[in-house]
Design goal:
The chain has 133 residues and is of the alpha/beta class. The protein contains five helices and five strands. Helix content is 39%, strand content 19%. Strand 3, helix 3 and strand 4 form a beta-alpha-beta unit. Helix 1 crosses helix 4.
Amino acid sequence: MITTLDVLSVGSLNSNNFVRDVLLSRTKCRLVAATSVWDLSAILASGKVDVAILHNTLSPGELRSCAVYIRHHWPAAMILLIHAQVEILDDPMYDERMSPDLSAETLLSMIERLAASSRRSGRSVLREGRNQH
């Protein structure tokens, strides 16, 4: 049984469009996209988010603000940081980090893995094996 995958993508229009295109290959997806931390406040916090993706098109301050907002409003959501710099954001602010040159297949696989982990254990499983990519 395929469950609906709820994804939040925060970054430039191009970054969000890439995520949208990746998710088109999967059935039962819901993507909410934002281009800034200010856009996040317009998204209903009561909606479910399995995976939140923060893109390298955001400034360090925006990355941190978005991560804090997401952790507060969607505590069960897993945060995937797509950024080349390892030290751009403190570890507790995200669950996994990937390089921006990732393939569509790699991104979809990671999103599905994070979503499954979020549903299964409320984020505790990946805390131990974080940032291996």
